[in-house]
Design goal:
36% strand; 170 residues; five-stranded antiparallel β-sheet; 9% helix; two-stranded antiparallel sheet
Length: 170
């Protein structure tokens, strides 16, 4: 069961690593200074992603983490691209074009949360550093040919700035 938390009165999700579950993804119209000229109300559509933690707050309620993205996938700097690439490793434009977001609802993810202060308001907000599928949940990566079974051999990630050259910097 999904518990809606009123973030104006409930505790902010603590910093650190959490196991979270995607509860819903819905379209919300929000004010935007970047609304296109065709927008008569100065608003744009955003996707509102609601996650809850598995570990409850001291009062027994779950923490909620909410993340907004745009609605277009593909630009490497777009929030939706960044999020979907983490929620479903192997995502690309062709898969995203056919993706039913509801297939991600209910899945579990590991995340690291940090707090940041919003300069314009002075309010503290939660922000994720990363989100990754919890593999033991059976959350498969995706590929152009469809889901990749969790038992597949995935190549190891290279270390940052690793160009494959093992020569030392003498």
């Amino acid at each position: 069961m999904y518990i809606k938390i009123d973030t104006s009165t409930d505790a902010l999700i603590p910093t650190g690593t959490h196991i979270i579950r995607l509860q819903s993804c819905e379209i919300k119209r929000v004010n935007s200074q970047y609304a296109p000229a065709s927008s008569t109300d100065g608003k744009v559509d955003k996707l509102l992603w609601r996650f809850t933690t598995e570990t409850p707050a001291p009062d027994g309620q779950v923490y909620e983490y909410v993340h907004f993205t745009g609605t277009a996938y593909g630009n490497d700097r777009a929030a939706l691209t960044l999020l979907l690439d983490q929620l479903a490793p192997g995502m690309n434009r062709a898969i995203a074009a056919k993706l039913d977001i509801n297939t991600l609802v209910g899945k579990r993810y590991r995340t690291r949360i940090v707090h940041k202060t919003i300069a314009a308001t002075g309010k503290v907000a939660a922000q994720h550093v990363f989100i990754e599928p919890v593999e033991d949940e059976g959350t498969p990566a995706v590929s152009p040919s469809g889901p990749v079974p969790p038992t597949s051999n995935k190549p190891a990630l290279a270390a940052p700035f690793d160009d494959g050259d093992d020569t030392s910097w003498n």
